[in-house]
Specification:
- The protein is mainly α and 415 residues long.
- The chain is globular and about 50 Å long.
- 48% of the residues are buried.
Length: 415
């Protein structure tokens, strides 16, 4: 009798992705940790940095927030080239590069005393996104999973939400105990101590490709780009994915940034803060729940339903007369927040060849990120123009419904 291979296989000889002994799930765990820290520092940490640097340096909000904007814009500009970087240097080296860039950024922030140091730190953080962001993680997981890719991506991306629940609050607590400089250095050391050994143990993407080739027809390496970007930008199918998620995420980012401001008049500041926690918690729960079944669902239809429920929640928030109803509406809205990050990768996986996955996701993410960055400013302008948030929330509702309609447009399958 032949010895049992290391990877778990089904009776048909295919790798059994449903078994927790399958090595791809170790990749998921590593990607979860990577997302935990890049989102904890690179997204949720921005509010902490802004407050502390204002206090320590006396810098105006515009100076610090413009550095944040530069970091996000540069990160999105780098996203379309992630697939090229993965192809040329491999996932381990690219992730280690991202960890190095992020660690250097947070260390520089601990010692920053001049605007040029501040901007340098935020530029380095953008390179951290390039090596650790969602495009990298989704592309790596795409090389390991077919049938359970939805669950794998959902679990890994929950690290992003947990970054706001774990890393940012821990940073705030440490600052209160030892000050900004020592807190930043301590959290940076913790990040490096956790991520470097984890990433060094990451199974090679080539082994995943070889593993698939043993028993399945070749489908291409998702880390090897084979489609130029210009024809992709002329593709109707590409825009029926990119446009709706760009619109939906623009509304979503605006909602998150302004949530306390539009809830406070009805609920008070403390309850509004609790509502934010409810929204974030439901984002984790929603991603887990959908992840368990999403591989059996049609992702475009699932996206439309998620957007419609968020639109309904926005309508309730506009009309809600009491705090209890607002809590419920925020919970419903939050349930789909994380899924709108997961679903684009699943649609692209089904409608584009594996060899183009990283490029398509990177370009789509870059465009969506650029558009979504306009959301907070647009809501702020409408609030200033109308004297309240109702019109801004109605605009977000309309954007959600338009996005739901566009995503249901079905191009011919590419494969």
């Amino acid at each position: 009798m032949n010895p049992k291979p290391k990877s778990t296989r089904s009776a048909s000889g295919q790798d059994d992705e449903s078994s927790w002994r399958y090595p791809g799930w170790r990749v998921v765990a590593i990607c979860f940790l990577v997302e935990l820290f890049i989102f904890g520092f690179g997204l949720y940490g921005h509010g902490v940095f802004l407050t502390e640097l204002q206090h320590l340096q006396g810098w105006p909000t515009a100076l610090i927030s413009s550095a944040s904007t530069l970091s996000f814009l540069l990160g999105n500009l780098l996203a379309p080239f992630t697939s090229d970087a993965l192809h040329w240097v491999g996932p381990r080296r690219l992730m280690l590069f991202g960890i190095s860039a992020l660690g250097t950024s947070t260390t520089l922030l601990a010692f920053t005393a001049t605007p040029w140091q501040l901007y340098t730190a935020y530029i380095l953080m953008a390179f951290g996104w390039a090596g650790m962001g969602t495009v990298v993680v989704a592309t790596i997981l795409r090389s390991w999973f077919d049938r359970r890719s939805g669950l794998a991506i959902s679990l890994a991306f929950n690290g992003a939400t947990c970054g706001g629940i774990i890393v940012a609050p821990a940073l705030v607590l440490l600052i209160g105990e030892v000050g900004f400089k020592l807190a930043m250095l301590a959290m940076t050391v913790i990040m490096i101590a956790i991520l470097v050994p984890a990433v060094m143990s990451l199974p090679l993407a080539d082994s995943a490709s070889e593993r698939r080739a043993e028993n399945a027809p070749p489908r291409g390496n998702p880390m090897s780009p084979s489609l130029s970007r210009w024809p992709l930008l002329q593709s109707f199918g590409f825009w029926t994915i990119t446009a709706p998620f760009a619109l939906a995420l623009s509304a979503q980012v605006g909602f998150i940034v302004h949530q306390i401001a539009f809830l406070e008049p009805t609920m008070g500041r403390s309850d509004a803060a609790i509502a934010v926690s409810v929204t974030t918690t439901m984002a984790v729960i929603g991603r887990l729940c959908l992840g368990m079944i999403v591989d059996r669902l049609e992702p475009r239809r699932t996206t439309a339903i998620s957007l419609a429920t968020q639109a309904g929640a926005l309508l309730v928030i506009v009309l809600a007369p009491d705090s209890r109803t607002l809590f419920l509406a925020c919970a419903v809205y939050g349930f789909s927040i994380g899924n709108l990050i997961t679903l684009p990768a699943l649609i692209i996986q089904r409608e584009f060849d594996a060899a183009t996955f990283g490029m398509v996701l990177g370009l789509s993410t870059a465009i969506g990120g650029m558009v979504s960055a306009l959301g907070p400013g647009l809501m702020g302008l409408m609030q200033s123009a109308t004297g309240g948030y109702d019109a801004a929330l109605v605009l977000c509702l309309i954007l959600k419904l338009v996005a739901a309609a566009i995503v249901l447009l079905r191009p011919r399958r590419r494969r």
